[in-house]
Amino acid sequence: MKHMGLIESLAKRVSQQAVIVQKQQVAAHTYRITLELPEHAKPLNYTPGEFLRVLVGLNKPVKVSEMVRTYSVWSYDQAKRMIDIAVCTFSSGSGAAWAKQAKAGDTVHFTGPKGKFTVDDSGEQYILIGDISSLAHLYELNRHLSARKKKVHGIVYAQQEGDFFPDLNGETPLSFHILPEHPVQPLIERLEPIVQSAAGGKGIVYIGGDGRVCAELNAYFRTARHGGSWQVKSKPFWYPGKTGLE
């Protein structure tokens, strides 16, 4: 226990603090958590698509590997010092437990933002693909790409309707599809009309969520013949049976 106390003390010293000002269940397995930074905190050096590492296991008897979870920034309002994240609770891990128990007024310790799965406005057309675990991340990318008048196609899948949720403005700009687990072939069937009809010029594909789907769709874009020239960016948010990526 003394060893755990030292780890928690160090984690707190190297992290930033925020306070939960709102928690809202937005879908069957997803919570929206809004954090407020301290009044005199420096603005975050943030690029859309970066994530936070949240210390979810502080003051709890959990393994070190269960203490930290990674969450995409759904939105960051610098003027209001507000950060929104979406936490999926499909697993029974420490992150899911934290989200269910969290309440307004709680102090949250985090590091970041950081990451490479970020917005890149050098493309002429975009495809955003992912499951529910990546939906908030894809919304953030889409919001910034759309503001730059980019052409964006979105394919988001889940096994049931109740797992989908709208963006922060209440809109659903990405296409929702109810598909079975690990739906690589159904996704390719939906991608084919998009890639075949693509005009020339650079296209960028973002693939997030299930690590198996990320890998297989990556291979599809490398080997398939299709219109346009596509650069693929992927980020596995989780793998079956593996914790620590939620």
Description:
- With about 250 residues, the chain is of the alpha/beta class.
- It contains five helices and eleven strands.
- It has helices spanning about 1-15, 95-100, 135-145, 185-195, 210-225, and strands at about 15-25, 30-35, 50-55, 70-75, 80-90, 105-115, 125-130, 150-160, 175-180, 200-210, 230-240.
- The strands form two sheets. The protein has a six-stranded antiparallel barrel. A five-stranded parallel beta sheet has the order 9-8-7-10-11, sandwiched between helices.
- Helix 5 links the parallel strand 10 (about 200-210) and strand 11.
- The longest helix has 13 residues, at about 1-15.
- It is globular and about 55 Å long.
- About 35% of the residues are buried.
**Overall pLDDT, averaged?**
90
The neighbouring-strand order within the major sheet is 1-2-5-4-3-6
Residue share in β-strands: 35-45%
Describe the sheet with the most strands.
6 strands, antiparallel, barrel
What is the distance, rounded to the nearest whole angstrom, between the alpha carbons of the first and last residues? 26 Å
Low-confidence stretches: none
Question: For the CA atoms, what is the radius of gyration?
Answer: 18 Å
Shape: globular
- By DSSP, the count of extended strands is 11
**Elements, N to C (H/E):** HEEEEEHEEHEEHEHE
Can you count the helices? 5
The percent of residues in helical segments reads 10-25%
Structural class, judged by helices and strands? alpha/beta
Fold blueprint:
Elements (H helix, E strand, L loop, with lengths): L1 H13 L1 E12 L2 E7 L14 E5 L12 E10 L4 E7 L5 H8 L5 E8 L10 E7 L3 H13 L3 E8 L16 E4 L5 H13 L5 E9 H13 L5 E10 L8
Parallel strand pairs: 7-8, 7-10, 8-9, 10-11
Antiparallel strand pairs: 1-2, 1-6, 2-5, 3-4, 3-6, 4-5
